[in-house]
Design goal:
The protein is α+β, with helices and mostly antiparallel strands and about 475 residues long. It has a single domain, classed as Alpha-Beta Complex (Amidase signature (AS) enzymes), CATH 3.90.1300.10. The protein contains 16 helices and 17 strands. The chain has an 11-stranded mixed beta sheet with strand order 1-3-2-8-10-9-16-17-13-11-12, sandwiched between helices. Helix 3 packs antiparallel against helix 4.
Length: about 475
């Protein structure tokens, strides 16, 4: 098995080889280090690396596997890349900003802590845009992160580095954070699985734990590996009051989708969707129909009201981060931070109240629709035509050559408003420009199993192969 094969092993396959002693965690990590040396100049997904410490940890994992009476942990020896706005004690936590370039985390995020205690080895932190706000992964601190499938295009954001690292084979596991689609959007753009678990499923750091829009979740090359991570991350945690007391365990395999009732919409009535995304979405629906699922297109008249109001949430509660940075460090902040600061300063308490009302009103319409089905499907992103260097906060992007605002194609945010619903993005195919497309699987509140059951039926539907940069 050559380096490229090793770097694209699934977590489950790697664990199997570790247990049989056909592969060492040290060998896998060294292959990924060599891979990073080859691809990072083009992709730029890894903000910080800790290879020396990681190699020492991998050697300890190898020793665990070598003991005949040893008890390897659930994720023993697997590499883990953590989005750099997520706290890992003693490591940089800059939020993608020069303002915090010297900041060191004083704690470890509870979900990341669980992954590490299960044997995962943090060998890198991944890039994100400043204060994790735009849809392209670029900042004055880290530069531009590019899509490994087509480096002219964005990896997506804000968990763009995590998605690009997973897709390019420089990590086995990765974490992202998602308050508007920041896991699912880049997962779709890079052809991997990205999971927004229901609010309360995975514990967060104290400063965001009470924000129901905010989620930490797995980003992996397969949905099966995302489930593997999810089983470790979830459950009640003493430092996060919002976590649920029940720990949900996703099984290794699910029944097929025969008889499942799946609702769908191509554009939710409000988004622009390219011909390539449409074709790949229809192919997914056909595959599920052929597998025995009952597929029903539904109308979504509620989506316009939700789209117009739900976005006020983040701008209101995180606006002070932007204003503090702009007021105190005007020479360090990115252009888009000034743009978003201006927008956030206009949001009033009345608009914040309208946001909360819109969530309740639109769920009153969508909730009963969803309850009549096992899940709901729609594209994750309406186009692949988002350039890595596009200033998406002011410049238009294109859908089949027609210019639109970027917010007309990101189809994730409404499901942060419906925060108790699990939402999983999985690959649906490749577009003509070589960039992957994604399908978003949304479940009923806290029904994680339904979305992974559908994902299992779609696993491997497109053989992307291995990226040879």
């Amino acid at each position: 098995m050559n380096d490229l094969d090793l770097c694209y092993l699934s977590a489950r396959d790697a664990l199997g080889l570790f247990r049989s002693r056909k592969l060492s965690p040290v060998e896998l990590l060294k292959a990924q280090i060599r891979r990073a040396e080859a691809v990072e100049p083009a992709v730029n997904a890894l903000a910080y690396t800790f290879y020396d410490d990681a190699l020492k940890a991998a050697a300890k994992s190898e020793a665990r596997y070598m003991k005949t009476d040893g008890r390897p942990r659930k994720l023993e020896g697997l590499t883990l890349a953590v989005k750099e706005d997520t706290a890992v004690k003693g490591r940089p936590r800059t939020f993608g900003s020069l303002v915090f370039k010297d900041n060191i985390a004083d704690h470890t995020n509870p979900s990341v802590e669980r992954l590490m205690r299960a044997g995962a080895i943090v060998h890198a932190l991944t890039t994100c845009p400043e204060f994790v706000w735009p849809w392209t992964c670029t900042s004055n601190l880290h530069g531009v992160t590019r899509n490994p499938w087509n480096t002219a295009m964005t990896s997506g954001a804000s968990s763009g580095g995590a998605a690009a690292a997973s897709a390019s084979g420089t990590t086995t596991l990765a974490t992202g954070s998602d308050s508007a689609g920041s896991i699912r959007m880049p997962a779709a753009m890079c052809g991997i699985a990205g999971y927004k678990a229901p609010y309360g499923r995975n514990p967060g750091s104290p400063e965001v734990a009470m924000d129901p829009f905010f989620h930490i979740g797995p980003m992996t090359r397969t949905a099966g590996d995302a489930a593997l991570m999810q089983n470790v991350m979830s459950g009640l945690h003493a430092r996060d009051h919002s976590t649920l007391p029940q720990r949900l365990t996703l099984p290794d395999t699910f029944p097929d989708v025969a008889g499942m009732k799946i609702a769908w919409s191509m554009d939710l009535g409000v988004y622009e969707v390219s011909s390539g995304v449409r074709a790949n979405t229809k192919a997914v629906l056909d595959q599920l129909r052929d597998a025995g699922a009952i597929i029903e297109e539904i109308e979504t008249p509620w989506a316009q009201h939700a789209k117009a109001n739900v976005g006020m949430w983040g701008g209101h509660i995180y606006g002070d981060e932007f204003s503090d940075a702009v007021d105190n460090h005007p020479d360090l902040v990115c252009e888009y931070t000034r743009t978003f600061d201006q927008e956030n300063r206009t949001i009033t308490p009345r608009e914040f109240h309208a946001c909360m009302q819109a969530i309740g009103q639109t769920w009153a319409e969508f909730g009963p629709q969803l309850a009549r089905h096992d899940a709901f499907l729609c594209p994750t992103v309406g186009t692949t035509e988002i350039g890595a260097d596009v200033r998406d906060w002011v410049d238009p992007i294109t859908v089949d050559g027609v210019e639109h605002d970027v917010n007309k194609v990101i189809m994730t945010f409404l499901f942060n408003g419906f925060s108790r619903c699990p939402a999983l993005s999985v690959p649906s195919g490749l577009a003509g420009d070589g960039v992957p497309t994604g399908i978003q699987i949304v479940g009923n509140p806290y029904d994680d199993k339904a979305v992974f059951r559908i994902a299992q039926a779609l696993e491997g539907r497109v053989d992307f192969g291995k990226i040879a940069l």
